Amino acid sequence: MDNLDYGIIGNCRSAALISKNGSLEWCCLPEFDSSSVFAKILDEEKGGSFEILVDDSYTIDQKYKENTCILVTRFSDGENTFEVHDFMPRYYNEGGGYYTPPEIVRCFKHISGNPKFRVVYNPKLVYALGETESYIKPDFIASLTHAKKFDTVFLYTSFDKEKVLKGEEIALKEAGYFLLSYNEKIIKPDTKKINLLLQRTKVYWLNWTDKVPTYKKFNDQIIRSALTLKLLSYDKSGAVLAAATTSLPETIGEVRNWDYRFCWIRDASMVIKVVSELGHKNVAKRYLQFIIDLIPNKDEKLQIMYGINKEKILTEETLDHLSGYKGSKPVRIGNAAYAQRQNDIYGILMDVIYTQLDKFNTDIENKEELWTITKGIVWIVDNHWEEPDKGIWEFRTEDRHFTFSKILCWVALDRAIKVAKIFGKTHKIDKWGSLEKRIREDIYANAWSEEKQSFTQSYGSQDLDASVLLMESYGFIEAKNPKFVSTVKAIEKELSNEGLLYRYKNKDDFGLPSSSFTICTFWFINSLFKIGEEEKAMAQFEKLLSYGNHLGLFSEDIDFKTKRLLGNFPQAYSHLALIECAINFSKKDSETKLKESFDNKE
């Protein structure tokens, strides 16, 4: 495959990627950040996969069962047809909580004729660091490794286990299944139980999407993106992952390959804000608890990112035995960026705290803890906002006074003042107001370039950066302010490449970026829309949507020339920005229709 033509399934404990041909090529068990069971996506020979093979007479189509995360792959040669319904079980327990076992179910449905297929079942446990051996037992196929550490998985199936392991042809005459479990089952599954799992999981997802408002435009894309964001949330702790994968490169053959199976405060907070706007406040409540749990001491600084189980040390190492996606080495696990200072995270976190209090004030517990965090954030910003940092794009060398970081320091004060008003803590407002004013004036004095007629990437620089487009959506500047309009036009002129945006064009630690960062293009489209260029924004949005894969999923990056998806996948950042754009277009459409209706009545 030349593109990231994968679907994602998951249950908010872990996830798996399945190719458009039905090949399971990435999965970590028992949790998102565990070592891989299948990693063909990172090494076609060594990585391991779980494939369904048919002869060349079959065509293969794939789609999600509507409004769910159940992936349906259909194999048909016209006369002989079957479907595979892939999912990870998730449903509500009658006793409370959710049933989310570390399991993948592959449910085979006979549609017509006498279809035949073969299976390649080739797990490679612990990142394929050594041999994984599989053995046929009375109830299951056990696969185990002693390489690096001991690990096992168990495959239950209605099909002939010997034919499965040997890759021999299997004739499908009735419904069948595979259930891959990290744990040995106490009660052996059967076709009836598997179907019950499927139906319960389907009902869970249908109920979840039913809470999402219906939008006049782009409703299907909003729902698919919302479901994808939900799949990247981790129930156990409330963390939200940046993506489900590691080391998918920003550019083929280069070294910008990072592990994204962690919770970045910035990414997660942006996701939470969007998902709660879609009516899912429980995800937000769990995330706020995740933050509260991470800040036990009033003087403890926030890291930019944490492990999904609240780990603070995320040591980075390379897996040199893996060749990488399309030969792009190194493959990394862990992420050294956890130690960086990025001053923007405080504003982003304050924004999500304020949004939740504003929307769900009567429903939020832990208000005292949130007020303590608010005061702590203001204290940290007051003491550190004038210092340089690594910025939103995590430059690994020098620190700079990045404009985006300064804007978000302003956001921290602006939202803290609003939170103080909600809690009636008026004694803080004047003191915090003077700091808010100082930061705002500092940005106007140092981030504006008369030469470029734009706010720039960092103080004293002439380089442009797509992240400054967010100054309007965070309320720092009005959309119709001439300086913002001019900034949008300058960024379009300098950073746009056939409608796709560079994050920036100045060289970073690894040279000039050669792919577009998807979220930046969504930010730009949103900015065009806000400054009144609505038709142009809509045309660019529809064009950008066409670059998604066959299921409407997006990764982190898009190649400027080929338009192929690159970078970790699916990317929370990309999908949250897609939702924001789509909602803006839909709201505008509703307002226009309301106005037309009103005018007609006149």
UniProtKB/TrEMBL annotation:
Gene3D superfamilies: 1.50.10.10. Transmembrane segments: none annotated. It comes from Arenibacter nanhaiticus. Residues 8-128 form the Trehalase-like N-terminal domain. GO terms for molecular function: hydrolase activity, hydrolyzing O-glycosyl compounds. Residues 218-582 form the GH15-like domain. This is Glucoamylase (Glucan-1,4-alpha-glucosidase), GH15 family. InterPro entries: 6-hairpin_glycosidase_sf (IPR008928), 6hp_glycosidase-like_sf (IPR012341), GH15-like (IPR011613), Trehalase-like_N (IPR045582). GO terms for biological process: carbohydrate metabolic process. Pfam families: Glyco_hydro_15, TREH_N. SUPFAM superfamilies: Six-hairpin glycosidases.
